[in-house]
Design goal:
single chain, 468 residues, alpha/beta, Rossmann fold, GMP Synthetase, Chain A, domain 3, 2 domains, nine-stranded mixed beta sheet, 28% strand, globular
């Protein structure tokens, strides 16, 4: 069961307690059950839910997965033509069980698919995969144990519910019987107000949001001492974000984890309150409860500790596979060990993430992953963010270059080289540094290493070579 039977339970046991709050609008457990149950008779076997954050979203999502129904959640920011294309594909590809207007608000068969997940995309059609109710129940049990979610927690996930991170947080809280909050749109002031007035104890968000909230919270003296848990996903936390979050929310355990939509949770680590982090490393903690991790080569053979290869997992949380978009590379299986192609290694039981193989830089016969260079640079004092890439080189094949965005004041190449002395091996250090006035990001807001190389090649005004 994902969470509908749990909603029934909480509505019976605690009907007037708060279940969901969106932008100040509140639904109790009894309200949520009543609203969702009233929608079930009018909900088709396959739903494509595409709307902004609201309390109605929570009720419609619950109704859309009742019984044998299946639901795909689309991003309302996607172009209309793309939304319509996905709707047609979902309706043509999904294979729901028989449904009836007389169905109750109850979970369907555990092994049956109930959710059509979509990879992010704005210009090309996203890949679509399915998840079973059982896989989400296993995920709930693992994440509740790992992150320590309690019924007295108030969780705020301030991003769009169309994003898998926030949709999962909503469903996880419904399963656990814990209050869930979000906003109509992300706004730093509104998040700070919720933390201050609604006694938020738990934040679920991406690193960029955490950084803004922490830095502006410190500047505005916003008290976050009541926050007990911060859960970050999307990328490993850089040094400046971690330091600001630790100062702003001194009593919070800060969690970061590695996972993928198709794999669910893989590994994670929690930095307890007031404990300092080891900066610049690629480690992302140990395997989640119920998950086994191996590093395998391209033929599926195990690699020794410390040697990089495909991060492969075996767990009950893995998705069923793709409805469409499977190119044979996105989700591979080696005799039941699944991988999405991310590269990494194990050291003393901890998983280290290096990134996608397609990003790898081959320089003088050595493999260098930009991700580990960027993490190391982000730990250097004075660096706000960094982007590393491989530039063609007649002698080496490629050479490592890096663009850095300063946090304050001036930076020199000498400072950067000295800062990397103890945290990055010599053969992985950049040979050339560039000062950035802004990060090279795509129209979709993602940092682009290729765009950095374009800026360097065209001598763009936003990038300037740093001398020693």
């Amino acid at each position: 069961m994902p969470f509908l039977n749990r909603i029934q339970r909480w509505a019976e046991e605690r009907p007037h307690d708060t279940a969901v709050v969106v932008a100040g609008r509140r639904l109790s457990w009894a309200d949520l059950r009543q609203s969702a149950a009233a929608l079930v008779p009018h909900t088709k076997s396959v739903t494509t839910l595409c709307e902004a954050n609201s309390v109605e979203f929570a009720a419609r999502f619950a109704a859309a997965v009742a019984g044998g129904r299946q639901c795909a959640v689309l991003d309302p920011a996607w172009p209309i033509q793309l939304q319509e294309d996905i709707r047609r594909r979902v309706e043509a590809s999904a294979q729901p069980a028989a449904v009836s207007p007389d169905d109750e608000l109850a979970d369907g068969a555990p092994e049956a698919a109930f959710l059509v997940g979509l990879t992010s995309g704005t210009t090309s059609v996203p890949k679509a995969f399915t998840r079973s109710r059982r896989s989400w129940q296993e995920s709930f049990e693992a994440s509740i144990e790992f992150f320590g979610l309690h019924q007295d927690d108030v969780t705020l996930a301030p991003g769009p519910l169309a994003a898998s991170l926030n949709l999962y947080a909503l469903a996880e809280c419904l399963y656990a019987g814990s209050e869930f909050q979000t906003l109509e749109n992300f706004d730093v002031g509104d998040v700070h107000a919720a933390i201050t007035h609604d006694h938020v104890t738990r934040l679920v968000l991406v690193p960029t949001m955490l950084r803004m909230l922490s830095e502006r919270g410190l500047a505005g003296c916003v008290d976050a001492s009541g926050v007990r848990t911060i859960i970050c996903a999307g990328s490993k936390l850089d040094a400046r974000t971690l330091e600001a979050a630790r100062r702003w929310a001194p009593n919070a355990t800060i969690f970061e984890y590695y996972g993928a939509s198709e794999l669910s949770f893989v590994s994670g680590a929690g930095l307890p309150a007031r404990q300092l982090a080891v900066l610049g490393g690629t480690g992302i903690g140990r395997a989640f409860p119920g998950v086994k991790v191996r590093i395998l080569d391209d033929s599926g053979q195990p690699l020794p500790e410390g040697e990089a290869g495909n991060i492969c997992v075996r767990s009950a949380m893995v998705s069923n596979g793709y409805l469409w978009g499977d190119d044979g590379q996105a989700l591979n299986s080696f005799d039941g060990w699944y991988t999405v192609g991310d590269q990494g290694y194990l050291a003393e039981g901890e998983l280290h993430i290096l990134g996608r193989r397609s990003d790898m830089i081959l320089t003088s016969g050595k493999n260098v992953y930009p991700h580990e260079v960027e993490l190391a640079l982000a730990a250097v004092p004075g660096v706000s963010a960094a982007v590393a890439a491989g530039m063609p080189d007649d002698l080496r094949g490629q050479r490592v270059v890096a663009g850095v965005l300063p946090s304050h004041g001036a930076l020199t190449a000498t400072q950067l080289r000295a800062g990397l002395e103890d945290i990055l091996p010599r053969d992985k250090r950049p040979l050339q540094y560039y000062l950035l006035s802004e990060l090279p990001v795509t129209e979709r807001g993602k940092v682009s290493r290729n765009l950095l190389l374009e800026w360097i090649g065209s001598r763009d005004r936003r990038v300037r070579a740093l001398d020693a």
